[in-house]
Amino acid sequence: MKKIIFALFAGLLLATGHFAKAQLTEEIKKKTPELPGQIMIDFGFNLSKDNPSNMDYNWWRSKSVGLYFVKSFEFSKKLELRPGIGVSLEKFGHVDNMEVFAYGEDATGADTLGFSTVLGGDLKKNQLAVNYIEAPVEVRFNLNGNEKKDGMFLAIGGSAAYRFESHTKIKYEDEFGNKMKAKTKNDFGLNKIRLGAYARLGYRSFSVFYKTYFTDVFSSSGPTGTADMTYSTIGISLTGL
After folding, report:
1. Labelling 129: which of 18, 25, 120, 148 has CA 20 to 30 A away?
2. 211 with 171: CB under 8 angstroms?
3. Are 109 and 19 in the same domain?
């Protein structure tokens, strides 16, 4: 009899615990806000074009990271519009850690942006960072056209970005052999606005992308020889949440 009572008591405890756990899980789900969209992360490498020899950038040192919040609007099971907002963080690293930006005067006495070297030292790293607030918009075609949209997809889109910060970072050894770092914030004659287009090919939450930008990196007040410098980005993307 005692064994039966013990078994009934143990069963009651297990049932009560299971019910309480189910209730707690349901409460957590109710209190946890659901995002009305998705988080998307882009990672790639920048490829510069028409840059002067003083600014010969290496693609491996020139990385790109984008973080966006994207909302989907469905036209059909196969077709959707996906606007977004986020930040784009771009880096450009010199091939041989060459000259650094330097301001001086031209023949007329006007301020001009050129290049110089680290006096009395050995330059180890020279990198330009340009950070944007970006608004991408893409049209995505889901090849399978199922409810979950968990198959292959192809997307094309465009983006507009506003530069909110830029700086250079250098690492060098001074004339006494001391390891030094220097970070300089400036606009360096960079354009405020960046316009571009891109394409993605993916499967479920993973894709590869290619982005190209129409706007010159530098404005007319940029370094000598950079009037036509542009760049593109190739990389991978992950979408979640």
Report:
1. 120
2. no
3. no
136 and 53 part of one domain: yes
Cα 239-159-92 angle, rounded to 5 deg = 85
State residue 53's pLDDT score. Answer: 82
Judge whether 90 and 161 are in contact, CB under 8 Å.
Answer: no
Ranges of beta strands (E only) in 186-229 are 193-203, 206-213
Give the rounded percent of residues in the chain with a pLDDT score beyond 90: 52
Reply yes or no on whether the pLDDT at 147 is more than 80.
no
Query: What is the separation, in whole angstroms, between the first and last Cα of the chain?
Result: 53
Q: Tokens representing 215?
A: 């706007």
Residues β-bridged to residue 93: 58, 127
CA distance 211 to 232: 6
Tell me, what amino acid is at 186? Answer: N
Share of the chain above pLDDT 70, in %: 79
Range of the domain at 68: 35-240
Please give the average per-residue pLDDT across 149-153, as a whole number: 84
Per-residue pLDDT tens for 22-68? 554 555 445 545 668 899 999 999 999 998 888 889 999 999 999 99
Question: Same structural domain for residues 5 and 53?
Answer: no
Q: Which of 214, 210, 188, 189 is CA-nearest to residue 200?
A: 210
Task: Examine the domain organization and report whether 50 and 65 are in the same domain.
Answer: yes
224 secondary structure, DSSP code:
T
- Structurally, how many domains does the chain consist of? 2
